[in-house]
């Protein structure tokens, strides 16, 4: 497994964030910001960062808040902006930048996709589809139609945090966007995609394909 590293990064304007990242062994295809869930940058986030690096992406997770703290839009956007600057400092072109997140991180990834024009964004099992879930993060159905970055939403169909009616509402909302969107549900999967290995593998490949299609 590719090793992850953690460092503190500060911009000349004083904005700073702690980053956990992993670098590809070969050619770098682009840079991905990985937004963490409510538990912070935990082992699952590190595994995702490492797995993306193994696929050729320079993947980096900003430590947005401490575990259990509720992030707000300003926290998410500031941390993402600083992390994007870190990627640019490392030679990643603007058209090769994307964002991905799971759970609360998936919610944050959609919020970023409505405020920042990136190459692509992916949200896996985002929470708060119909009702706001944390801080001043909006309900996803209220903002999905305003995304300005190509956005993919992936859900487990047996997800305790979202039923098929909500997922369909999110799909309808996202269809109003002026960029490419797709909302996919896997009926046999659950929130963490550990109940159906085949669905998990397909969802992972779909995520990679989305970035491959849009970051080029």
How helix-rich are the residues, as a percent range? 25-40%
As for the number of domains, it is 1
Fraction in beta strands? 15-25%
CATH-defined architecture: 3-Layer(aba) Sandwich
Q: What is the H/E order?
A: EEEHEHEHEHEHEH
Q: How would you name the CATH homologous superfamily?
A: Alpha/Beta hydrolase fold, catalytic domain
**Which blocks of ≥5 consecutive residues have pLDDT under 50?**
none
Based on CA atoms alone, the radius of gyration comes out at 16 Å
Query: Which structural class fits the helix and strand makeup?
Result: alpha/beta
Instruction: List the strand order in the largest sheet.
Output: 1-2-4-3-5-6-7-8
Organism: Amycolatopsis marina
GO molecular function, one term: hydrolase activity
Domain Dienelactone hydrolase: 21-214
Pfam families: DLH (PF01738)
Outline the structure in words:
The chain is α/β, with parallel strands linked by helices. It has one domain: 3-Layer(aba) Sandwich (Rossmann fold). Helices cover 34% and strands 22% of the residues. The chain has helices at residues 43-54, 73-89, 104-115, 140-143, 164-174, 197-214, and strands spanning 5-10, 16-22, 30-35, 57-62, 97-102, 120-124, 151-156, 181-186. Strands 1-2-4-3-5-6-7-8 form an 8-stranded mixed beta sheet, sandwiched between helices. Helix 2 (73-89) crosses helix 3. The longest helix is centred in the C-terminal third of the chain and has 18 residues, at 197-214. The protein is globular. 45% of the residues are buried. GO terms for molecular function: hydrolase activity. Residues 21-214 form the Dienelactone hydrolase domain. This is Carboxymethylenebutenolidase.
